[in-house]
Amino acid sequence: MLHIPGEEGGLSEAAPEVNNQDLLDKLAQKTGNAPEDQVPHVVDEASPSSTSSFELLDMDSAPAPYREVQPHWFFCPRGDDNTTWLPFSRDDSDKLENALNTVGDKEGDEVVIAVDGERYDVHVRERKRYAVYWEQDPTEVRRCSWFYKGDKDTKFMPYPEDFCKRLEEAYMVAVTLNEWKTKLEFPSGETVILHNPKLIMQYQPIGLQDEWQSSPSEQTRPRTVKRGVCNITVEIPEGEPEKVDHLVFMVHGIGPACDLRFRSIIQCVNDFRSASLSLLGSHYKRAQQDGQVGRVEFLPVNWHSALHGDATGVDEDIQRITLPSISRLRHFTNDTLLDLFFYNSPTYCQTIVDTVASEINKLHTLFKQRHSGFNGAISVVGHSLGSLILFDLLTNQRNGSNARQGVLSGESFHMHHDTLQDTLTRLGLQQYLDTLQAENLDLESLALCQDCDLKDLGIPLGPRKKLLNYVRKKWLSEDSKNRAGRLPPGIQVQPESSSDQDGNQSSAASKRRAHFHRAQSVTSAVEYEYFDVGIGQTNGGIAKGQVSINYPQLAFHPQTFFAFGSPIGMFLTVRGLKHIDPKYSFPTCKSFYNIYHPFDPVAYRIEPMIVTEVDLEPMLIPHHKGRKRMHLELKDSLTRMSMDLKNNVFGSLRTAWQSFARIPVAALPPLDEANTTIENDLQESQASAAVSASAKREEQRADFWTKVLEWPRALHKHNLQGTCEEAESSESAEQREQPEIKVGMLNEGRRIDYVLQEKPIESFNEYLFAIQSHLCYWESEDTALLLLKEIYDKLGVAFEQPQQ
């Protein structure tokens, strides 16, 4: 027998050892029913006399009737960690419980239940949770009814289901027979003692204790055991509305981690989604109650794993040339910072844009399959380098009105509708028709071939030069006819033209030569003169032997593009773009927001590239609680006070200087008597004017110091009411001073640059928080609220400012 010593107020005698079968047999003998047919009921018997202080806790209370415990379903957030358990929402838990009660635990077809906004599927019989939209190891799921917490634990942990079943059977017998102080021993060595309904303890076997613990009291310290989720402290989520109003795809930046806690894009998007749900409940509460608002679904788009996976082999290539010193720093550089250089490489840029576009299209297809009734709009969000990737993708999208006519589009290179056979016959090269058709070559694919490609097919030098020369001339002829129609009035690159000896411009000829080189080497339909912002190559075209980028097409037209901490402005400038035409807009996306933190070292503005004649301040994003941060109010108020003080000092100096510079009256030449009266009147008027001016200056000084002395009261009023009257008046004055300016068509004429308000602690030293500022967008409620307001404004849902 294992003797478990009690602690303070503990057992004065050893509790009897009873297993579950003994308890059930005893219950059957007492009631005359089989254990499996036993219906629990109240037995009005007194508890056996005992001196145990545990039993004295509830001696005066009558035993409560047995009621079956209500289980709740929990899950592990990570597959490699079973020490953290989180509860499902009540709706999801009820769905899982109903499914289990319907099919039971017997073997059969697997039952799959969608949970967490249908982002996960739970296999009920297998007790596993599988991610739907991203790759993740399956995690364990439990149907929990009993929980424990150690002395050093911060929250209760669920027992395994078989452990819970034995505890519940013992509890049922104890309640029904009103016999407590029962000891349960498990094969693993744990011992659970049921002292009374409110006090149940678990004791660990000494052999399983931590070897570093030497104190016997520490080795035998019990765990607290609780029955039912209602008796523990746990935050159960309310669940998400089934209706989805809007879908947002979020693309990460460089590296596998997205914040200072080195969390993945999946975890960061989960936090952003949770923040948006909370803001919907506070800022669209009435619309939610009326059923006008459902929720916004955010899905992560991961491209880093595809770039650094085994398919590309780039990590192995980089590792071979990496120096062995400072290995951790070099590993961080290879895994994170090199993504910028990969995107500027034509080879790996193609991999990145293909991965992003294919992942977005795949997620879009899965979402439509699981939400067949969804008819809302779709937006995209890009952070850091992810915003540049989306910018290039959206720039190179096509729609019905301005579809680009590239080589692979099949629209501009038809050779007057000639077939391959007609062309070879015209050139007298019909004997090579079978050779080319064996490789499935037509005129469009032939235009992409180089001399070495035809050489590999066994075509001699003369015929292949003749064929390539014909393709070049015909394509340049077709291209020159349609060049003007293909160039939109969008972002324009400054032409790099050169003059010959006669002063004639030769830029057109160089462009035609660049087009020919491109026709021989490209693998896509991208034309740099259409929108020369592709991958950062030279403006005049792509040199022979380089590779162009085939920008894939998205399966939908995004409604809005949000850029977080974006270097788009810098990359456009480095690529040679000095000005964005105000008339330009994305072919398939009509709205664009550039959101950044004021201390973000990677973020750049967009509006100065569109409106060059006016110095526009960025739009300040309001705090999600509906006011300006207090330290910014204080900063603005002190600035205004210093300006008032400066104006008063300069006014006093100006008056003093004028008084010194005035010519004395006694120095004037004598006047006639006729002018004496006029002089006296003039002196009197000057004296009265001086008195009035002095009185006005004194009034201004008094008013200024009154404002200074009343500032603490105004600050206290700001803290209580969440607003400052002086700030409102200054903001309204600024709005009156700055007329509304239409900032191009990238955002339908509205403002593009939006800046977050820095936190008070960040104002002390902006350099210390520079890196954090670039990674703060995933947890920023102000950013999430801006997205929600843009989305629901277009849906016509009224925005509500919560009361402070």
Automatic annotation (TrEMBL):
Q: Enumerate the transmembrane spans.
A: none
Residue stretches making up the WWE domain: 59-143
| InterPro entries in the cross-refs | DDHD_dom, PA-PLA1, SAM, SAM/pointed_sf, WWE_dom, WWE_SEC23-DDH2
Q: Which residues form the DDHD domain?
A: 554-793
Q: Name one GO molecular function term.
A: phospholipase activity
Q: Where is the composition biased (Polar residues)?
A: 494-509
Pfam families with a match to the protein in the record: DDHD, SAM_1, WWE, WWE_3
Q: Where is this region: Disordered?
A: 1-53, 481-514
Question: Would you say which domain of life the source belongs to?
Answer: Eukaryota
Looking at the UniProt record for this protein, which Gene Ontology cellular component terms does it annotate, in alphabetical order?
COPII-coated ER to Golgi transport vesicle
The UniProt similarity line reads: Belongs to the PA-PLA1 family.
Q: What is this protein called?
A: Phospholipase DDHD2 isoform X1
Task: State the organism of origin.
Answer: Gymnodraco acuticeps
